[in-house]
Model the fold of this input.
Amino acid sequence: MSAIGHGSRCTVVLVLAASAAACMQARTEESREMPTKIAPGEAIVILAKPPVEGAPTEDAFMDCVGGSLASGKDGMPVRNNAQFRDALFPWFEPGTAPAKPEAVAAMLSHPGVSEKITTTGVRYVVWLNGKTVKTAGGGSLACGAAPGAAGCLGFGWWEKESSYEATIWDLKQAKSAGTVDTEVTGTSAIVGAIVPLPFVARVRGTACNRLSGQLRSFFAGADLVSPAASTASAAARP
Done:
């Protein structure tokens, strides 16, 4: 099924059902290489992974993930990324940041670097990479005005895709702890029935929520509990 075909079908559903919920599909995956249950006194920092080409991950998306991860009663300690870079200048600048987690050990051997990281409390670096792009669109919407009347007729649709990957490094062990990635595709539409009616799929916001939620489980160690242990624990509750 092509992207355009999928978008057309989603748009038809939106128009006929007149539903406020746009059409979206989402996927989230995790790959863990080591335990990462965060301990008291340890913190996380979220940085944009230096891109091989193109623009880096949007600041707004990084702020969204960091804010969501830090919020709530079970929020994680997330350090401000600009303050972290300034404190460790120039070791985490785009041109000088370690390319691999194994290179962290060499970086820590430089005078004062290890002490500065200890001062920040950061143990885990989350490198974010990805973007939100428009992948398809179509339809036609015409608006006009005349004395005593104005309105729009027709409909238009567009599809966006948010694809982001978080790579987690353990600075203490100078190793990669794993990855979390999410992909959200959504089709939005605007229907012209005198007054334009938009049905917007908020793909980037959904990607932020899904990625931060999975990272929260990653750092809480929630996914380290075996299914058998979880079942036994649930059965033991009154």
About this structure: The helical segments are 3-17, 59-70, 81-87, 104-108, 113-120, 203-220, 227-236. The first helix runs from residue 3 to 17.
